[in-house]
Each structure stands twice: as C-alpha cells, then as structure tokens.
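Here is one chain, start to finish.
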Amino acid sequence: MITPPHHTTAAPVLSDSFGRVINNLRISVTDRCNFRCRYCMPEEGMVWMEKSELLSFEEITRVTRLFAELGVTRIRLTGGEPLMRKDLHLLVEKLSPLPGIRDIAMTTNGFFLAEQARLLYKAGLRRINVSLDSLDPVKFNLMTRRDYYGKVWEGLHAVEALGIRPIKLNAVLIRGVNDDEIGAFAYLARTKPYIIRFIEFMPIGLGDGWTNEKVMTSKEILETIEHETGKKLVPVERRGDQPADRFTFEDGLGEIGFISSVSEPFCDQCNRVRITSDGKLRTCLFSLGETDLKQLVRGGATDGEIKLAIKDAVWKKEPGHLINQPSFTRPERTMSQIGG
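Its structure:
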C-alpha cells in the first residue's frame, strides 16, 4: 500500500495515490484571449474575470515556490493568452531564480511575441510553444475567428531571431477542416527550426462541435506524413516525461510530436497539475473538482498549510480522464478558463 507523501520523511517528492510523481506545473495567468479558436471557446458571450480575481504575480511566485519545495521543477505559463497579462516578463523574472525550478516555458497564440519576446528571453524564458492550427491564412481565420495570421508569423520570426530553441508549433487537427495540411506542416518541420506537435481534438470548448469522428488520430497523421514525404518517422521518445511522443524523420531532418489524448491517453504517466488564473488547483484538465489555493493564500494560511492542501489534492489526482467512456462529463469551464 502506498503511503500519502506527507507521511514520509524522504526528499521532496509530490506524488499521487497511483505512484505518479508530479514535477510539472502549468500556471494560467489570465483567462482573457484575443483569439476565439473554435475548439476552445464560443465566438460571443465570454465573461472575463475581474483583475482582483486573478492571482497577483507575488501570489503566483509564492505558490510556485511552495510547489518547488515539494519537488516541482518545470513551469509552463498559459492562459487564455498569457501575453495579455501586462508585463508578464516581470513574473518570469520572479520565477526564474526560485530554487528547484529548472525550466520555464510558455504556450501562446503568438500575437504579442514580436513586441515581447526579447523582454521574456532576458527575464529567463527559454522555451516557447505557439498555437498555429493552419498554414493557410484563410483557414487560419476560419479556425481562430480572427485575421491575425501575419502577426503570429511576425512573432515566430522574432523568437527565431533571438535564438530561442526549441520553438514548438501546436496544431489541433479537425477532420474535414484542416486535416489536408498535414504534409505542409511536415515540410515546415523539415525546413525550419520548428518542432511540429499535433494535438488530438479534445472535447473541452463550449460549442466546439466535438465528435469522435472529427478526431484525426496520431496514427492517421503519422501514416499521412510518411506517405506524403516518402520518409519514415523514427521514435525518439515515447511515454516520456512530456505529453508528446517524439519522432524524427529517418534522415534526421525535422521533428514531429504527437499528443494522443483521445486515441492513446497517457494518463497513467501524467506528471502535471495546473493552477487556473483565479488560483484553483486542478489535478487534471478534465477535473470536475478544484482546490482553492487563492482562498488559502489570501486567508492568511501558512506555507505549511498550503503545502498540505497541495499534497492532499495531488494525492487524490484522478486515474485519468474518461473521454470516449459513457461516464465522461465535460468540465464546466472552457479551455481558456482552465488554462491551456
């Protein structure tokens, strides 16, 4: 029988009742976004949180320090669109020197990168993922409901010029919408310093029209890439400490990643938890319950009390999501409200 981690005296390790070690924390800094991606949120009717509801940079730093003391080593800043949070580089400056934090990354839609990339890099950000679901401007506008294709590429060029590596492009493929661009994405991976990561379409947005039939599985995408490029994909890392299964082309030119959340769930090796922008700890993207860390922080709780709440929540982390099972229930929050 596994003993809850706060009953042990071993070196700091944050783990759940299934023996999974949690060392990766995703922090949403805002629920706001200037895009309206079809798989994430409705086009109209989003109600944003008041600034006072969001964790301050100081509060985020305190909570992150406590997670680091419990064994978390990797941080990812998300949103909404994280760069809509004013002066985000100041938060990165606060997080970078925290003992135990070895890696700070960010997922962004890329719109503000051209203006902010240099400040973020100077502050300590070293890895950037940009969401880019189409390489066709018209289709990009259809998927994001915004005419911002050129701005995203300005941002990518700015990041590339700074020498930030790796630069990962996240693409959600939807059958019948953008699944005809697989070959174009593969070509990009082979000709530019971008790692293309295909993420299976998940049921997480209000009005997203998700059905299993619209999911392009990783297996289908891999087969299409090999057919269109005439090159085999060779596994580099499978079921590792990140959600993507990584492949390179047989000639060594280009890397492709697959996040197969629907067809091949990796829940049994999940090493992540997330904090929403209003300070709720969620142990799974599809959690139906949350732990209110903001209430503890603002209510005068000690570091020890907050750590205990974190350990208790993580210990109860779900065995996995239930997509494709009869008992699956969508979370009440959209992806932008949870944190991408």
